[in-house]
Amino acid sequence: MRVRYSPQWWLYLLVLLAGVRLVVAGILPLSPDEAYYRLWAFAPAAGYLDHPPMVAAWIRLGMLPGGDDAFGVRLVGVLAGAGISFFLFRAVRDLLPGTGRAGGVRACVMLQATLALAIQSVVITPDMPVMFFLSELVWAMGRVRAGAGTGWWLVAGFAAGLACDSKYTAILPVGGIGLWLLIQGLRHRAWGVQQVPGVVGGVMVAALCITPVVWWNARHGWASFVRQGGRTADWHPGRAVQFLTELVTGQLGLMTPGIAAFFIWGQVILLRHARRDAGAALLSCMTLVPACVFVQHAMGDRVQANWPVVIYPMLAAGAAMVTWRWGRWAVGGGVLVGALVYVQALFAPLPLSAHTDVALRQMAGWRDLASGIEAHARPGDFIAACDYGTAAELATVMPGQVVVGMEPRWALFNLPHDVAGDGIMVCNPRRGFDRDVFVSVQQIDTLARGRQGRVAERVSLYRVSLRTDLSAIQRSTIVRLPTPYKDRINKSFW
Fold first, then answer.
1. pLDDT for the residue 494
2. Terminus-to-terminus CA distance in the chain, angstroms?
């Protein structure tokens, strides 16, 4: 039975998903990493220790209309998640013209139905900006493939540069384009020579986009490059089977099994067509180069489940090559899984532990914890935390308080260092903190953070008093974090 593709049904689906995700994004409290990225938005810089600056720019942009709350922090990410479909649909049209309009629809709905996009659309991390700009890159390369003019190389370079400004792993699909150019140039020398001016222009535009990130790293001891590059230093080949298993199961979960089957079969078909079809070859190169790197990394170290999302736009484009016979079931299953995750995060109908319930572990109970801390605080006390996630969370839920970060990472931030006197240190018992910066440290209580009687974490409270003779290096690691205005703090049933 042939499925008819009206121009409306998939647009209705995308609008519905975007609307639901806007609501969920406005209700769910920020996770520790999101609260940390929110602080980046108040300390603009060309780079940060953990990632390039794009996620901070998006958060700041969303706060302008949305406010300093969960909705504002996530607003641009939700809209970008829907906007990916614009680029992907047109990329399929140019790269795989034989699939027709229906192929573009298949690619869009497949990507939107993945659990990865369901999560990344409501939880702002660098993964959403990098997927957005990589989708733009695929669209621009489709225009190049369609012969729309060498000027599209400039658009491709711009998108590639912004993707690298979002997350460093964007360099892997860009490397796939380099491999494709090499292969195509060897096969069709005249075509390769013709593309040289456009390629050079695109590389120059991309280099211009990433220059601020390189400049920031050069001024800060290459801190971000060293941190991310240092991941390759860990090597435990004896655990390769475990790491590879985690990689596979993690991707099956983030894609959902039905959509994963379409993604994999789409890549098989692309490889079959790659020899005679430049568009198929391009998508294969942009997918396989990162995939091979992740598999190689998993041979000796853990690959975080979210890292491979950089290849999801290309996987979705490849799925356009697959017939739609079981597609509606795969998409329906993916949407259902995403909906169940939202329901659990919002209402917690299943009594899961913090080990299996990510929303409980990361988002639950921060306001109640803040109330418990304030009950012990004296007028003029600062509130400090021994890890960046806890400090960032407290900075979002304690308006009017002086919330302090105390870690070496804070020395890289342009934030006030005017912290003195007495305060309360909040620390998970499994963590430690530098006691040398205090005159006295006295434990005063232990509090639990959680939801509906389920404990996510226990923290110890210490009454502390800062030394007055701190060195310049010690003082540089102690910063005052920006907290919301009292009338703009996000209120929710959480």
1. 53
2. 47
